[in-house]
Write a structure and sequence with these properties.
The chain is α+β, with helices and mostly antiparallel strands. The protein folds into two domains: about 40 residues, no CATH class; about 100 residues, GMP Synthetase, Chain A, domain 3. It contains five helices and seven strands. The strands form three sheets. It has a three-stranded mixed beta sheet with strand order 5-6-7, with helices on one face. α3 packs across α4 and α4 packs antiparallel against α5. The radius of gyration is 25 Å and the shape is elongated. The two termini are about 50 Å apart. The relative contact order is 0.13.
């Protein structure tokens, strides 16, 4: 096998020649690609509607999770890697927040700051009755240790 140059990289000549002979996808393959690509946006989960203290108002769980992640990040300065709202149908029965800790963090104290931020967010977004019903079912998980300091 001989070698030629494509760009500035040496390449086997047979590989270059074979790639030049490749045809565009057949009609069947092109239709399949178009059909799958067209269906992908429909696969996204639309979220679930959550009840609030006001029966006339409902809020999407994706909005609540984004609010939780933003509020917790602001309160703690830690990266939120997961926000999960637990419950059946439109009810909220618990919340789980996953964060990245920094070396030397007091995880218990930071977890209490997270819980306070979650309670405040639930009260503002869903109402005080629903926030109270969640109670102490706010779970904080630390996934990893993270530091911004240079290592010597």
């Amino acid at each position: 096998m001989s070698s030629s140059t494509v760009g500035e990289e040496p390449t086997d000549a047979w590989l270059v020649e074979a790639s030049r002979r490749l045809d565009a996808p057949s009609g069947d393959v092109a239709r399949l690609i178009a059909r799958v690509a067209g269906a992908v946006p429909a696969l996204r989960r639309p979220g679930r509607e959550l009840a609030t203290d006001d029966v006339r108002i409902r809020i999407n769980d994706r909005v609540v999770k984004q609010l939780l992640a933003t509020r917790v990040r602001t309160a703690t300065g830690r990266l939120v890697v997961r926000a999960q709202v637990d419950g059946d149908a439109d009810q909220v029965t618990g919340v789980m927040i996953g964060l990245i800790a920094r070396y030397g963090d007091d995880l218990h104290a930071e977890a209490e700051r997270v819980r306070a931020a979650v309670r405040e967010t639930l009260t503002l977004a869903l109402g005080s009755d629903i926030a109270a019903s969640v109670g102490d079912r706010i779970h904080v998980r630390w996934q990893d240790v993270y530091t911004r300091q240079w290592l010597d």
